[in-house]
Amino acid sequence: MFDPIQLRERIDAVFARAPVIPVLTIARLEDALPLARALLAGGLPVLEVTLRTPCALDAIALLRRALPEACVGAGTVLSAEDLARVADAGAAFAISPGATDALYAAGKDCGIPLIPGIATASELMRGLEHGWQRFKFFPAEASGGVAALKGLAGPLPMARFCPTGGIDAGKAPAYLALPNVACVGGSWMLPEDAIGAGDWTRITQLAQQAALRR
């Protein structure tokens, strides 16, 4: 049976592990382990692997087996079918850029916590009606950024967020200072040239800087 309080507590446990959730788009499966290890070494144990590449599900399964100390979830979850696939792959959580009634329904029956995306007060109110209180705010910068989240806090103080989209090292602290922000998502610690060159030391250094953002 769907339990909104248990859902909130499970999502809060994910959010509490680090101030920043790296958003990984893994193009080559062979990069998955060294990339994740570099982020873990830098103090970022919560990893969002987006479903934007053919090897994403394999990467999630690999990381869950090889790195039990990490909290590996799936991003870009768009449908009930996606949610089922990432749960089968072993994802610890699922994040969506938005939400539909069908996705909310699937989230109530799924064994892993779903973090739905919202960008407006109306979308947030619909999520609250479905029993959720924890959300991704996306695309954060394009949707009003810090000012928008401050505005939502007044009438809807029960909601907390992981803003993602357009956030970088310079912008993260302003988000993390808000009482209704639990953590932020981003990929600024994952420069493409460093991944392409296998410069995992650089990624660890960037992760260390991100882990100290709060």
Largest sheet, spatial ordering of strands = 3-2-1-9
> What's the average pLDDT?
97
Total E-strand runs: 9
CATH architecture: Alpha-Beta Barrel
Q: Which outline best applies?
A: globular
Structural class: alpha/beta
Distance between the termini: 36 Å
How would you describe this structure to a colleague?
By secondary structure, the protein is an alpha/beta fold. The protein is 45% helix and 15% strand. It is built from 10 helices and 9 strands. The strands form 3 sheets. The chain has a 4-stranded parallel beta sheet with strand order 3-2-1-9. It has a 3-stranded parallel beta sheet with strand order 6-7-8. A two-stranded parallel sheet has the order 4-5. α2 (29-41) links the parallel β1 (20-24) and β2. The longest helix is centred in the N-terminal third of the chain and has 13 residues, at 29-41.
